[in-house]
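Weekly structure sync, notes
Attendees: PL (lead), two postdocs, one rotation student
Agenda item 3: pending single-chain targets
PL asked that the sequence for the first pending target be pasted directly into the notes so everyone works from the same version. It is reproduced below exactly as submitted, 164 residues in total.
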Amino acid sequence: MKKMKFVLCLLTLCLSYVYTQASELKKDNTEDWRYDIECAGSGSQGSYLVRVWSYGKKPNIPSDDMKRNAVHGVIFKGFSGDRGCTSQKPMAASPAVMEEKADFFKAFFADGGTCLKYADIVGTPEIIKVGKEYKVGVIVSVSKDVLRKDLEGAGVVKSLSSGF
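Predicted structure, written out during the meeting:
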């Protein structure tokens, strides 16, 4: 009987460890920033209208993840000027800013983080099966002027009037 209790305890510990590792792996996968961003037309004054394509094993990618990807794309990737749009450079001068300001961005892009207040989903998602995963596209309006102002205030990006 003692051996049975010992084996059950050992099994429980092993399962807890595997579950913790799987959770960490899932967390790492969501922080890989696997998305594409493109212009989706002209947005209202002070905003960008972008289409974000996010990738996942299931077709139901949460809207907060789509918004997070759109804001991340505006800050760090920019987008090309297709379909009559003007190309937009990323707000951050370098991708290294994400590492340099890691504490800021960890909170900014966290679940329920402040990045969500700059983005609104417009329309319904488009879902495409690609191999064993899904590519989900949605149009997002990103409040670029407010986002830039807040990032400048936090010292994350330089002001456009700061010179060269």
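Discussion points:
- The beta strands are 35-39, 48-56, 119-130, 133-142.
- The chain is about 40% helix and 20% strand.
Action: rotation student to compare against the earlier draft before next sync.
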